[in-house]
Write a structure and sequence with these properties.
72% of the residues lie in helices and 0% in strands. The chain is mostly helical. It folds into two domains: 174 residues, no CATH class; 198 residues, no CATH class. The relative contact order is 0.12.
């Protein structure tokens, strides 16, 4: 089920009403059923993978927590990692590695599988693994209730595109007897409206510019491709942060608080700062479960740089099975390593001019890397960059609309407009009611019973 659909605008209020009417045990059963129904609208067969991940990690965590034997504990962890990463590898990376081997050697280790990528598999796989790993580390006690783990894995607001939540944050809230809190509900409605507007009115408006330019790069001028790259920077931010706003808002309607996933990332003055503000739940997951176990920054500058590069390369590969995403991750790692070497990541600028210069450079480094993120492959990305660098002639797009929208976004972020909007609706019931009714009517008229384009991060 898509957030940006009429079905969801009916689904969420219905779930919320039942949620507050039912006693705790039945509420949890209803919420679990609603979460699976949310996913099954996309695919009934692939929902079995959710069940598989849930059962594997529930069982592995119980084995780990219930045993004093280091061998049994280690086997429990290995079982979880192999099962989860194995499913992810088959569905997401099998063809990528097979095609890569064929390009290098002329032979395939296995035939192409051509499988459909299950919706949200990268997100819920990382989430379930974090639960087992935290139990293994002694940070959590394994839950005896299968419903606890099943709800944690499948909670519908953040199921298909995050945020990636830790068990110690979400499970206690799902077990709590929550009464309706109208301030939280109104704040949730405000975030849903805000996120929906970002998706429908900004991200989806930029999409045709990006699709047309990148879809026919050889015939598009350098300025046109530059314009489309700015447009993609706007599109991906408003698309993904819009999804996150709707997810956090939907959870708030149910009285459940999810952590922030974005904090004005395009105001960053370094790439390291950007990753502290962009897709925060993935950044912290990679830090806690990959970068730190590799040694983090404790073994000297060289090892720190190696660990950082490995983390960002795997972070790029997490996004997609293609060498362009590996290059994208490699660029992020390279930028952060260079910042560390010259000391920029540790010294935030104080003077206004220095801040503006650092912001301008950081934003354009991010845009440079977005070319590899949006391109279909490395050759396509290289063609786009070459045509931009040489200001190649061809079909032109107005560069000013994306630039104007970038500046508008910067001012919206600087002015904390989102926060002010949420505060207004949270503390003024009548205004919240009017905006909720108007937004419902507007979006129903726009969707007309059908879904708008999917969110970009659904492909991951």
């Amino acid at each position: 089920m898509l957030f940006n659909s009429t079905v969801y605008l009916i689904f969420l209020p219905l779930v919320a009403v039942l949620y507050y009417l039912l006693p705790l045990w039945w509420r949890r059963v209803m919420l679990l059923g609603a979460s699976y129904a949310f996913y099954m609208v996309w695919s009934v067969p692939f929902s079995s993978l959710l069940v598989f991940s849930t059962v594997i990690d529930y069982t592995a965590a119980r084995v780990i927590d219930g045993s004093d034997s280091p061998l049994r504990r280690r086997l429990g962890l290995i079982t979880s990692l192999v099962a989860n990463l194995g499913v992810l590898a088959v569905f997401k990376y099998a063809d990528f590695f097979s095609n890569s081997a064929y390009s290098l050697t002329g032979a395939r280790p296995w035939p192409e599988l051509d499988l459909i990528l299950p919706l949200g598999i990268s997100f819920y796989t990382f989430q379930t693994m974090s639960y087992t790993i935290d139990v293994y580390r002694g940070h959590l006690i394994a839950r005896k209730s299968l419903i606890d783990v099943a709800l944690y894995v499948s909670f519908f607001p953040q199921l298909v595109a995050g945020p990636i939540i830790r068990a110690d944050t979400l499970i206690p809230q799902l077990r709590e007897e929550i009464d309706e809190n109208w301030q939280l509900i109104r704040a949730g409605i405000a975030l849903i409206v805000w996120g929906m507007c970002k998706k429908v009115f900004i991200a989806d408006t930029m999409a045709p510019i990006v699709n047309e330019a990148y879809g026919n790069a050889s015939a598009t001028s350098g300025m046109g491709l530059l314009s489309a790259t700015y447009a993609f920077a706007i599109q991906i931010y408003c698309d993904f942060s819009g999804y996150t706003d709707i997810a956090i808002g939907s959870a708030l309607v149910l009285g459940i608080r999810l952590p922030a996933n974005f904090r004005e990332p395009y105001l960053s003055c370094s790439i390291r700062e950007f990753w502290r503000r962009w897709h925060i739940s993935l950044s912290t997951w990679l830090r806690d479960y990959l970068y730190i176990p590799l040694g983090g920054s404790k073994r000297g500058p060289t090892h720190t740089q190696i660990n950082l590069m490995i983390t960002m390369l795997l972070g790029g590969l997490w996004h997609g099975a293609g060498w362009n995403w590996v290059v994208w991750g490699g660029l992020q790692g390279t930028f952060m390593i260079v910042e560390r070497i010259i000391g920029l990541s540790e010294t935030p600028p104080r003077a206004l001019i220095a801040k503006l210069v650092r912001w301008f450079i950081t934003f354009h480094l991010v845009c440079l890397s977005w070319v590899f993120f949006r391109a279909t492959d490395i050759g396509h990305a290289w063609e786009v960059l070459t045509r931009i660098a040489t200001n190649a002639p061809g079909e032109a797009f107005g560069v000013w609309e994306p630039i104007a929208l970038v500046l508008v976004l910067v001012f919206v972020e600087l002015g904390r407009v989102r926060k002010r909007f949420v505060y207004l609706l949270q503390h003024h019931a009548f205004i919240s009611l009017c905006i909720a009714i108007a937004a419902f009517i507007l979006f129903v008229l726009m969707f007309r019973g059908a879904s708008s384009p999917e969110f970009i991060y659904f492909q991951f």
